[in-house]
């Protein structure tokens, strides 16, 4: 699954620079995650760095609208890195 930033976001700017896929950007009111670029850090880190640095509990969650397997996330990582 891609990740989703909820309305708990306080726009602290901690997550944006940590994303290795440039999937996080400022939306109309809060930061947003582009599900086409989010790999949950598969291929980069053991766990999503945005969740690790976010100071708000449960602010960045799994996006139920974008269900993906670990294999699909790794495939997306390969494509985003230009390895395909």
TrEMBL record:
Signal peptide annotation: none
Alphabetically ordered keywords of this record: 4Fe-4S, Iron, Iron-sulfur, Metal-binding
Highest rank taxon of the organism: Bacteria
A UniProt-annotated Pfam family: Fer4_7
Domain 4Fe-4S ferredoxin-type: 1-29, 31-65
Keyword Transport: no
Protein name (record): YfhL family 4Fe-4S dicluster ferredoxin
Organism listed in the record: Photobacterium arenosum
